[in-house]
């Protein structure tokens, strides 16, 4: 008997990396010193069923969709790149949020989460 699940049975994830500087606006309105990170982004998506060839979506298509967002940030200063110029503070949380809200996934594929590492030790998770 199939268990009642509120999660889709199939998930895939892709990881993309980019290098970028940022500087957070702090609680007192000051800016932290500009510094760089080797950022790591993991996007996890799901589907209720596999497509005609047995995939949720092609890994390379998911990689391409992520790259459309992060490649323009590569070797740049995030504070000079939309949406971090005015709308969002360039925190790891907001990097994950912006990627999550911007991805245009194929029909039948649902975003589960975006996790962003700014260092090997620290990551932020945007999860739906
Ligand atoms: N929840 C979050 N906390 C912090 C973020 C963030 O995006 N989300 N970002 C920062 C700083 O931008 C920075 O990355 C951390 O600076 P620091 O504490 O100096 O750590 P670094 O790895 O850059 O340098 P160290 O070698 O560890 O000193 C802070 N918090
Ligand atoms: Zn930082």
From TrEMBL:
Zn(2+) binds at residues 22, 35, 37. InterPro entries: 6-PTP_synth/QueD, 6-PTP_synth/QueD_sf. Gene3D superfamilies: 6-pyruvoyl tetrahydropterin synthase/QueD. Keywords: Lyase, Metal-binding, Queuosine biosynthesis, Zinc. One of its GO terms (molecular function) is 6-carboxytetrahydropterin synthase activity. Its EC number is 4.-.-.-. It is an enzyme of class 4 (lyase). This is 6-carboxy-5,6,7,8-tetrahydropterin synthase.
